[in-house]
Design a protein that fits this description.
The complex is a heterodimer of chains A (412) and B (124). Chain A is of the alpha/beta class and 412 residues long. Helices cover 31% and strands 27% of the residues of chain A. Chain A folds into two domains: 215 residues, Rossmann fold, CATH 3.40.50.300; 168 residues, Rossmann fold. Chain A has a 16-stranded mixed β-sheet that branches. In chain A, strand 9 and strand 10 form a beta hairpin. The longest helix of chain A is centred in the middle third of the chain and has 18 residues. Chain B has three helices and five strands; from the N terminus they run H-E-E-H-E-E-E-H. A five-stranded antiparallel β-sheet of chain B has the order 2-1-5-4-3. In chain B, a hairpin with a 4-residue loop joins strand 3 and strand 4. Chain B is globular, with a radius of gyration of 14 Å. Chain B starts with a helix and ends with a helix. Classes of the chains: A alpha/beta (412), B alpha+beta (124).
């Protein structure tokens, strides 16, 4: 692997450059002198990637130059703010848009204006001369519009020049590109000029309708079996989140499934009567750049006919058990079978681990016949004195967070 | 060729021109939203999960009573909102939220047509 220099120069302390979960994990950020192309299909759009990358870097004190020909600087900044990405002094915009619309734009410290965006030479020289002023990152929104304006030959030579200056000045670049059905040769040529290509597309697999990104290639990280594609959701505010549409939470009666869902998510809804869930719990989790929808099943046996429906399309499972009730363990395994989720990544949550008579981790493992690779995490009530049998109990964050991060790691 | 989600969306848009339909969505039988035309303050994820569980429960209840045919629709009513969930093939459910003081018969007819369309799109 090519040596990666973190933003602060300490190789162990790898500061993310993308600010997007999973992308930073796969690519270890964007090292300087590298050019990344983010290529999107028209139905999806890649502008939020731009906002998020810009924001991540300006708050880490990296100077970012933004070439903008898609919209006006004002509406760009407003849009960024709507995603909760406010700008700061580290961000400078080259405005190649106002000149097209005829709206007068005043040059300020943070907005440089291209007076005639139809002038090939002015556009090029403005970008290149500004880039020499010590920026860590150049973001272009959008490269495809520039190709529409001039031609692909122009764009290719511009990328070459940017590469040259990036080498001299230790800068990196992110180019946003929307593929409106261009000639394949032209697109391939651009792809051959850059160091990494990230593809953003829509997915329609059976009933999963969503969006994904995938690293097509990258010359500074070796991935022997390629990079996995990642489902994401664009949240306003919040930006790009890695998304898991359905994670099942199951387990025997009164183990704490609803408690887990309510503790992990911010907007959980339960269908229950007198403390027991009768149809399902649902909650959205927003955790460290990941977003997941949790579906909780009822635990009582008389609702078993519903389990199969709830388990459909799930991609991971939390199996919640009561650490003090080993007699329920066979039921827990039976529920995994009934939800038809056997074989998916499973994290076992041993709840009520702080109660008297709770079994130790090893004892639970032995009694459940767990594979040693399967994760088992203990959770505790935040405050035992507040436990109300008719309400979901608030669980301590540490166990809940550990469980989430372990399952999310297995899923991507 | 339009993508599936574009086709589903245009079916919903056509349906929404019928008077009284306030919101509509196509969800999977497993409770995931596929496409939706919803007011901004409604979370489509929660809505889809709840509706699918209603349909699933109703289906199970009917079967246990000896129903021979599959479930056609589930209706939930309050004074200000009526929600109708219509089966659209095996994988999808069409859900619509309507004003109860409108021409219910017409809406049921139109939603049946739309659900057949959706079933066809899903089969592609």
């Amino acid at each position: 692997m090519v040596e990666y220099r973190g933003l602060d120069g300490i190789p162990e302390d790898v500061d993310p450059y993308f600010g997007i979960a999973k992308l930073d994990e796969q690519l270890k950020g964007i090292p300087s002198k590298k050019i990344v192309l983010i290529s999107a299909s028209p139905s999806v759009g890649n502008e939020v990637f731009g906002y998020q990358i810009i924001h991540k870097n300006i708050i880490s004190n990296v100077k970012v130059l933004v070439f903008l020909n898609r919209t006006s600087p004002q509406s760009y900044l407003t849009e960024m703010k709507e995603y909760d990405f406010p700008s700061n002094d580290n961000m400078v915009i080259i405005d190649a848009y106002s000149g097209i619309t005829g709206i007068k734009s005043d040059e300020t410290d943070h907005i440089k204006v291209i007076s005639n965006p139809y002038d090939r030479e002015e556009v090029k020289s403005k970008i290149l001369s500004e880039l020499k002023n010590g920026y860590g990152l150049l973001v272009m929104d959008s490269l495809s519009l520039l190709a529409d304006f001039f031609d692909f030959q122009y764009v290719n030579s511009l990328i070459k020049e940017i590469q040259k200056i990036s080498e001299e000045k230790d800068a990196a670049a992110v180019l946003l590109f929307t593929d409106w059905g261009y000639d394949k040769d032209n697109v391939d040529k651009i792809i051959s000029e850059v160091n990494s290509v990230i593809e953003v597309k829509g997915i329609e697999k059976r009933v999963i309708f969503g969006q994904y990104f995938a690293v097509l290639n990258c010359d500074w990280v070796k991935a022997n079996d390629g990079f996995s594609s990642v489902l994401f959701k664009s949240m306003k505010p919040g930006g790009i989140k890695v998304y898991f549409p359905k994670i099942l939470v199951t387990g025997p009666t009164d183990a704490g499934k609803s408690s887990f869902i309510h503790s992990a998510s911010h907007n959980a809804v339960s269908v229950d009567k007198l403390g027991g869930t009768i149809a399902l719990d649902h909650g959205s989790v927003d955790f460290e750049g990941y977003k997941a929808d949790l579906f909780g099943t009822p635990g009582q046996e008389r609702f078993d006919p519903l389990l199969k429906m709830l388990g459909g399309e799930a991609i991971g499972v939390f199996l919640v058990i009561d650490s003090t009730k080993p007699e329920q363990f066979p039921r827990a395994i039976e529920m995994l079978r009934k939800t038809e989720t056997y074989g998916l990544p499973v994290v076992v949550i041993a709840n009520k681990a702080d109660l008297k008579g709770a079994l130790k981790k090893e004892e639970i493992r032995a009694k459940l016949h767990l594979d040693s690779a399967m994760a088992l995490i203990q959770t505790f009530a935040e405050d035992l004195s507040k436990v109300d049998p008719n309400e979901p109990t608030k669980l301590k964050d540490e166990g809940v967070h550990e469980a989430l991060s372990v399952l999310f790691k297995q899923l991507t | 060729m339009a993508t599936k989600s574009e086709q589903l969306k245009s079916t919903l848009q056509r349906l929404s021109t019928v008077g009284g339909i306030k919101a509509s969505a196509v969800i999977s039988a497993n409770g995931l939203p596929m496409v939706s035309l919803m007011p901004e303050d409604v979370d489509p994820n929660t809505f889809a999960a709840m509706l699918a569980s209603m349909v699933g429960s109703a289906e199970t209840a009917l079967k246990s009573l000896g129903a021979k045919n599959t479930l056609d629709r589930v209706v939930a009513e309050s004074k200000d909102i009526r929600v109708v969930a219509v089966q659209a093939g095996t994988d999808a459910i069409l859900t619509i939220m309507i004003d109860p003081n409108t021409n219910y018969g017409l809406i049921l007819l139109e939603s049946k047509k739309a659900s057949d369309e959706i079933a066809n799109i899903m089969k592609q």
